[in-house]
TrEMBL record:
One Pfam family matching this protein: TMEM33_Pom33
Listed name of the protein: Protein Kr-h2
GO CC annotation: endoplasmic reticulum; membrane
Top-rank taxon, per record: Eukaryota
Assigned keywords, A-Z: Membrane, Transmembrane, Transmembrane helix
Subcellular location: Membrane
Gene Ontology terms describing biological process: endoplasmic reticulum tubular network organization; membrane organization
Membrane topology (UniProt): Multi-pass membrane protein
Chief site of localization: membrane
PANTHER family: TRANSMEMBRANE PROTEIN 33
Protein family membership: Belongs to the PER33/POM33 family.
Transmembrane segments: 37-55, 105-131, 176-201
Length: 267
């Protein structure tokens, strides 16, 4: 009788919840979102190669630097394919291509791929990679299970919390690189055409319809310089220099396009 009672108890016991990682769900997600996963992978490679450049434990630091730029170029090319589809040889397609932020950073990688490594150059690349890979890493973790890798989720939440500050830092770096390129020409470290080519990149960033951060940063810097020049203690010659810099930058600025801001700017 005890055996039958035991059997009945075993037969009516509630099913135990499944534990562990849902690998099958992750596989299905990867198969159905191949381009998104490829974008995530190239961004992870960008982060890894950047770490290899600054902390050259394995391999050559210079090689890691250029691999980071190439990974960024691959990310930009994949993103362009995802947004625009196959290449079309038409004026409309070319005009649309130049408005894409991914095209800007593909152009950015090509500008500096033949220049000696510059720490500041790789900063926007790796910050974009961190920002966007963190966002998609959360999607991958959700497919594994909502309780998977809580430590990684904490790091991702910190990155997303600082997303606006990261985008502002990227924009500030883009702007500072313009006079820095001029300085590098004078020091003989880059070619004479580099500042002119980079200027066109900066114009594209300023006119971006989806990412207003570079345009906003220019505005903030203008206010800062004008308020600094307006201080009574500011010597007259420095005041003229600051106001001259503002006037020169304003003259070079392209016509402002209507922005289409998004919570996280694209690359």
């Amino acid at each position: 009788m005890s055996d039958s009672t035991s059997n009945n108890t075993e037969g009516t016991s509630p099913p135990q919840p499944q534990r562990g990682l849902n690998i099958e769900a992750l596989k299905q997600h990867v198969l159905s979102h191949k381009i998104d996963v490829a974008l995530w992978a190239t961004r992870i490679f960008t982060i890894m190669f950047t770490m290899g450049y600054f902390i050259p434990v394995f391999g050559n630091a210079h090689s890691s630097y250029y691999k980071a730029l190439l990974s960024n170029a691959a990310t930009s090319a994949l993103r362009l394919h995802q947004r625009l589809g196959p290449v079309q040889f038409s004026r409309v397609f070319a005009a649309q291509l130049l408005t894409e932020d991914s095209c800007h950073y593909l152009f950015y990688s090509l500008i500096f791929i033949y220049v000696a490594p510059i720490n500041m150059v790789i900063l926007p690349v790796v910050l974009f990679a961190i920002l966007h890979s963190a966002s998609y890493s959360l999607t991958l973790l959700d497919s594994l299970g909502h309780n998977a890798w809580w430590g990684a989720r904490l790091l991702i939440s910190l990155v997303e919390f600082q997303s606006r500050n990261i985008l502002r830092l990227i924009s500030l770096t883009e702007i500072i690189l313009m006079p820095f390129c001029v300085f590098l020409v004078l020091s003989g470290k880059v070619g004479l055409l580099t500042p002119f080519i980079y200027y066109h990149f900066l114009v594209q960033r300023y006119a971006s319809r989806r990412n207003p951060y570079t345009r906003n940063m220019f505005h903030e810097l203008r206010i800062l310089l004008e308020s600094t020049a307006a201080k009574p203690s500011m010597p007259g010659i420095l005041r003229q220099i600051l106001l001259g810099v503002v006037a020169f930058a304003t003259k070079l600025a392209p016509p402002q396009m209507p922005a289409q801001p998004s919570p996280t700017a694209t690359q």
